[in-house]
Every structure is written in structure tokens, then in C-alpha cells.
Design goal:
The chain is α+β, with helices and mostly antiparallel strands. The protein is about 20% helix and about 50% strand. Strands 2-3-1-5 form a four-stranded antiparallel sheet.
Length: about 80
Amino acid sequence: MTTLYVLDAPENAALPKVAVHDQAVTVGRIGPNFEIASDGSIVIDRRATGCRHAVWYSAVGGVRGGRIVQHDKEALRVEPA
């Protein structure tokens, strides 16, 4: 299971809202974080989130069971380990 953690802060709320549109992804909560999980890859399009660059690049709180292979102005992609 590939899991991405994003702090539940107002400026980060768009990430899980966009991620949940992928049917292979589940979004839950663990403590003060959103837990975005998938058996495969997790891909979030930055433009779809409407996040400004500063928020985009600081949104990741952690990753479990995978690694970030793309985190640029286009997308955030986490691949299974």
C-alpha cells in the first residue's frame, strides 16, 4: 500500500479533494493528517488543486510504502516501493 500524508490545513484541503476522484485512491484521516492511499501509484495534478507553488511544495507530510518520483509544477506522483 502506497500512502501519502498531507497535513489537514485549509491551504492543503484541495489535495485530498482532487486525489479522491481517482477510484484507486482512498482518502482518510489519521491524527491531524489526511491519509491518501492506493495499492498502486498516487498522482495529483497541481493545476487541478489550484494550489500556489509555495503551498504545493510544502504540502507533503510524509510517505509510507512508496517514494516520490515527481514533485514539480505539474504533478505530485508517488510510486509503490
